[in-house]
Amino acid sequence: MKKALISLSLLLVLAGSVVAATGEDVTQAEAVSGSQVVQAPALDSSHLIDTIIGLLLVLALVLALAWVVKRYTSMPGMGKGKVQVLGGTSLGPRERAVLVSVEGQRLLLGVAQGSVQTLYVLDENAPSREGSMPQDDFAKKLEKASQEDAS
pLDDT tens across 106-119, in order? Predict the structure, then answer.
């Protein structure tokens, strides 16, 4: 919550400086409109430099906010530590079954309100979803059938 308030206040400060800069230009235009000829300001290097500095500040702000979001939010399965969430499914309104990997060992955990229980410990050599494809079984059956036909 504090991080959100800090980023919101930073955005408000930036917006306030943009409004203040725009307000100065309006007052200058009103002062000039009192004269006979109203000319648009010429495009010179000082306006171009101000524009580039403003764009760089906005870009830096966007990059800083992206870094803060990446640093302080976590997505399931994207852990860098020793515990990694591989998947999960909802079993009820407040219950979930979660598959977790801890230092190479996979655990099936039951997560309910206020409790976490180990439901099953999978072997390290147990095939994962990708390793137990039906095509592997079909290939073995096909090879066995072709050997029986050959003999």
Answer: 899 999 999 999 99
Taking the CB of residue 119, how many other CB atoms lie within 10 A of it?
Answer: 12
Element (H, E) at 116: strand 115-122
3-state secondary structure 86-114: EEEEECCCCCEEEEEEECCEEEEEEEECC
Closest CA to 100 of 114, 125, 117, 112: 117
Structure tokens at 151: 């003999």
**Domain segments of the chain: what residues?**
2-34+43-72, 83-122
Mean pLDDT of 9-32: 55
Are the C-beta atoms of residues 87 and 106 closer than 8 Å to each other? Answer: no
